[in-house]
């Protein structure tokens, strides 16, 4: 959507630059995934440093000398730190942000220390894998994911990361919920794309939308004759021509999947009434295609 929205050329022009930006933006999503996952490792390191400093106090208490190491020894954090593929990926993708911007790790760690979550977790000195996992899930969901200062930092660091953050947060939480004590070393480094078709779809949707934008815009205009064009949000136009592209050019994608997907995007990025408007246009178009027997869908249940 962002790439189509930013495209200013015509159907006959070259758009290699925009396609390259699209693929780079998708790759940057993986950078963000690694960055956010590495934040958990940095929190563990901060906890270890915190214990070390407490033990070295000039007037250390008995609690300082014999600290509760439950967080430092968290089994899921230990899995993360021991994952060689993850460490290699962090190095390959040059994920060194927290080394230079350590204050954001401090922000997360201090918020954790002040939380009821931490107080409850540290009531005992030992735990099992399940408790460690549930604690880490809560830490990520309740403290890291909604942190506004982290959000601002990511927005300043890369222009598309704020839009990618919900996807990345969801992916990390899913992984944390699924992790087991015997998880393979590559568990925390899943592939960005499910398969080659997954990557090809992104490029194909972009190219087919651009190459047919005049025809798709005409479809929208023919069904909005009673609308002042200035009243239709630019984002709505983009979402409509992309949805029309999927309906017309991608036979294997069910109509309901297409419509539901673009309604959700409209709710997130466009006006409060956009989803109703888009749903009306697409619903009308699909009925017309069905009546004329020109809805190009293959396979069962794709209507």
Automatic annotation (TrEMBL):
This is Antitermination protein NusB. InterPro entries: NusB-like_sf, NusB_fam, NusB_RsmB_TIM44. GO terms for molecular function: RNA binding. Belongs to the NusB family. Keywords: RNA-binding, Transcription, Transcription antitermination, Transcription regulation. NCBIfam families: nusB. Signal peptide: none annotated. Pfam families: NusB.
